[in-house]
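Dear support,

I submitted the protein below through the web form. The confirmation email said the job was done, but the results page showed an empty box. After a refresh the structure appeared. I'm attaching both so you can tell me whether what I see now is the final result or a partial one.
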Amino acid sequence: MYLEEKKFIDVITATPLISIDLIIKNSQNQYLVGLRHNRPAKGCWFVPGGRIRKDESIGSAFLRLTMNELGISLEITEANFIGPYEHFYKDSFSNENISTHYVVLGYEINIDVPLDELPQEQHSQYCWFTKEELLASDDVHINTKNYLLN
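What the results page shows now:
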């Protein structure tokens, strides 16, 4: 279910959003990140993911998000649930002055995906980082780093 922009801003202002983040690890032990071109986290390397819609089950959201973010549909049973996380941002998709609070379900997936075939809606480019590179980079968002610190 999509909301018109004004209603969605009201939701963001009043409540946390629930989302799924996809921690993608390839056969070389590297992690997939994309350079975000939308707020929040604009300009940072971040893992793929997205919101769960109202009346959408977690499993259905997982199928939709893996298709939208990776170009392939994966079942939630193909992933390892690594836990719940919280992300707090001072801005939102539409406004620098409205904060966003996410309750995020983190799922790790072991798969090789070609970078040149990944969707460009949320990320302008993609890269594979080793755990060490990811944690050392000032351009990787702290919320992405937190998935590898636990």
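Response: this is the final, complete result; the empty box was a page-load delay. The radius of gyration is 15 Å.
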